[in-house]
Design goal:
- This protein has a 7-stranded mixed beta sheet with strand order 3-2-1-4-5-7-6, with helices on both faces.
- The protein has a single domain, classed as Rossmann fold.
- The protein is of the alpha/beta class.
- The two termini are 31 Å apart.
- It is 45% helix and 23% strand.
């Protein structure tokens, strides 16, 4: 499991802020609603929901990121509560919330089905959930795949991830809760000074990049794999003067 507290996930959180805005806008919040933001990170969605008048709790497994989210609430004069916790063992009573949000957080649960069940458990009978998932196409996905395959080869272990982007797969999870699923399409534009600068920033700041580097260096393949990943970014770059790529995503809406 990746320790999301290492590095500087704050840099990635800024990049993902437009997706948090999309997710929260789709929620059509009403003042006073009780909201849980799962895998809140630095609190992007939680703070947006709080500004919309919701009573918000953000949860994340990384204590450092929870501290960052709390600092943001203080500096931005927003009220929200943040707690350290596990997506697969939520520390809340059944039916505690009207709405569950997650911006590229739920998708990293080790046991997708159990995490989904936990999310639904803490929702009220009339509750709803909205969470974003990546669609596995585009240069960023190809770059991540390049590193992922190499790490699997270096460690001799591979974990098949649940297909969160697959509407039918999510519907199979929802059917046990008598819930309906609706899909909203989105696209995140990612920019940088150059493909090289983008990759270098990920190496310094992104928890997954930092965690994945060690096994590749032990295997003696890091430089080769890095060159392959950089080629992917260069070939997919949409801006010859800088760096620009488009990454499609989906917002999954679940309602009982």
């Amino acid at each position: 499991m990746v320790d999301w507290g290492i590095g500087r996930y704050e840099q990635t959180a800024v990049e993902l802020a437009p997706v948090a805005e999309h997710v929260v806008s789709l929620a059509e919040l009403e003042g006073g609603e009780l909201v849980i933001d799962l895998a809140t990170g630095t609190g992007n969605a939680a703070l947006l929901a709080a500004r919309a008048g919701a009573v918000v709790t953000g949860l994340d497994s990384a204590a450092r990121l929870i501290d960052v989210a709390r600092e943001r609430t203080a500096s931005e004069d927003v009220e929200a509560t943040f707690v350290v916790g596990d997506l697969e063992a939520l520390p809340f009573e059944d039916g505690s919330f009207d709405l569950a949000l997650s911006v590229f957080g739920l998708i990293f649960a080790g046991d997708a089905g159990h995490a989904f069940d936990e999310m639904m458990r803490v929702l009220r009978p009339s509750g709803r959930a909205l969470f974003s998932v990546w669609v596995p196409v585009g240069p960023i996905d190809a770059m991540v795949g390049t590193f992922g395959r190499a790490i699997a080869a270096a460690t001799g272990s591979r974990r098949d991830r649940f297909g969160w982007h697959d509407a039918d797969a999510v519907r199979e999870l929802a059917v046990g809760h008598d819930a309906q699923v609706r899909i909203h399409e989105g696209e995140l534009v990612i920019t940088g000074a150059s493909p090289e600068a983008y990759l270098e920033a990920a190496e310094r700041h992104h928890p997954m990049s930092i965690a994945g580097r060690a096994p590749l260096e032990r295997a003696g393949t890091y430089r080769e794999v890095r060159d392959q990943a950089l080629t992917v970014l260069r070939e997919g770059n949409e801006d010859p003067e800088a760096f620009r790529v488009s990454s499609p995503y989906r917002v999954i809406e679940v309602r009982r």
